[in-house]
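From the pipeline queue, job 12 of 40. The input is one protein chain; the requested action is below.

Action: predict structure.
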Amino acid sequence: MIGQRIKALRKERELSQSALALRMGLTQQAIGKWETGKSSPDYHMLVRLAHALGVEPELLFDSADFFGVGRERYYGEQMVPVLGVVRAGYGLPAEEEAQGREPADVRDPSQYFYLVVQGDSMEPGIKDKDLALIRKQSILEDGDLGVVVYGDGEGTIKRYHRKGDTVALQAFNPAYETLILAGEDLERLYIIGKVVETKTRW
C-alpha cells in the first residue's frame, strides 16, 4: 500500500510526521491519514511527497498505482483565478486584487482560488510569494491550514486549532506567537477556505 511506503520512507529518513508535513506545507493529520490509508494523496501530491522525501516517485507506488489509481485522481489542469494577497503574518490587511489565473489540478475550478502569500510566518513550509491554492469552505477542522479574516478585516494564513470557545491561529515560524481569539474577537472571525496546496511562483 502507498501509505506503508510513505511511512517506511519517512522513518528511514528519521522524519516525524510533523517534520514531513512542515516540508510540504501540510498538516500532521494529513500525513497520518495517508499512512493509515484513511485518505490518499492525488497524483501531483505524490510527486511533491517524493521530492520532500528525496526519492524518485516510483519508490512510492508500483506501476499499477502510478498508471491506475494515481491517474484516476488526476483531473487535468484547470485555470483558477489568483484573487490577491494573503499575509503570512499579523496586523496587515487582506487584499483582493485580480492577478490573472494559474493552473491547478482540481475537479471544479469554481470552488478554488489562489492567493499570493506575503510574509515569513509560515516558513519554512510556505515561503513569501508562494501561491496558496484555497478551497472555498466556511468550516475548518482542527489542525487544518486555513485562510481567515478577523478583527477589522485582517487576513492571514495559519494553522487553525479550535478548543471549546477559543480558536488558536498558529504560525509555522516559531518567531511568531500563536494568536488566541475568544469572545467578541471570535465572533468577528470569518473562515474563507482551506489551503490544499502551495507552490513556488518563479
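Job complete. The helical segments are 2-12, 17-24, 28-36, 43-53, 63-72, 184-187.
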